[in-house]
Amino acid sequence: MESITVTSPEGTMQVGAKLGQLVQPGDLILLDGDLGAGKTTFTKGLAKSLGIPNNVKSPTFTLIREYHQGRLPLYHMDVYRLEDGGTEDLGLDEYFDGDGVSVVEWSQFIAELLPTTYLRIAISRDTDADDQRVMTFKPQGDHYQHLVDQLKE
User: Fold this and answer.
1) How far apart are the first and last CA of the chain?
2) What DSSP designation does 51 have?
3) Do 15 and 8 contact (CB within 8 A), yes or no?
4) Are 72 and 50 in contact (CB under 8 A)?
5) 51, 97, 46: which is closest to 76 by C-alpha?
6) Coil, strand or helix at 142
7) Residue 134: which of 12, 1, 10 has the closest Cα?
8) Over the Cα atoms of the chain, what is R_g?
9) How many other CB atoms are there within 10 angstroms of residue 113's CB atom?
């Protein structure tokens, strides 16, 4: 398990951007953390490095936002509102097996639908510093371990 500490929202975006340079079609990134931890900020950096010109917004009320203008499509999901079910009709496996990168916020609510390989990133706030975040990378599978190794370089 690897961790990166950043001290600003821009730092969070930079880590997302670096990962965005490495991702491939079909990659699945899970973002865990409390409200305001920086999950969407991270995704903005990833989207920017994919060449997506749109302003990335949290998909809290739409559940899934699709961006097709970059190097790869980005499927940004916020499944917080699915805590009590309702996932069967979303066709998430089509996204996960698709031609783009899927980023899922609050993935614990769809744990039973996740494939066996993915990159989980837990983002937590440092209680002593407002803008400081610790990102802990938990790769599942060789491909995602390789991504984390590249990210560290």
Assistant:
1) 15
2) T
3) no
4) yes
5) 46
6) helix
7) 12
8) 14
9) 16
DSSP labels, 75-108: EEEE-GGGTTS--TTS-HHHHHTSSSEEEEESGG
Tokens representing 103? 């980023």
What does the pLDDT look like over 104-137, one tens digit per residue?
998 888 888 899 999 999 999 877 777 889 999 9
State the virtual CA torsion across 107, 33, 83, 120 in degrees, nearest 10: 10
> Which pair of tokens denotes residue 68?
């097709």
d(CA 106, CA 79): 6
Residue linked to tokens 């899927």? 102
> Shortest CA distance to 36 belongs to which of 107, 138, 130, 136?
130
**Pairwise CA distance, residues 150 & 103, whole Å:** 19
Asked if 5 and 96 touch (Cβ cutoff 8 Å), the reply is: no
Sites in the chain below the pLDDT cut of 50: none
d(CA 83, CA 63) in angstroms, rounded, equals 12
The answer to whether 122 and 49 have CB atoms below 8 angstroms apart is no
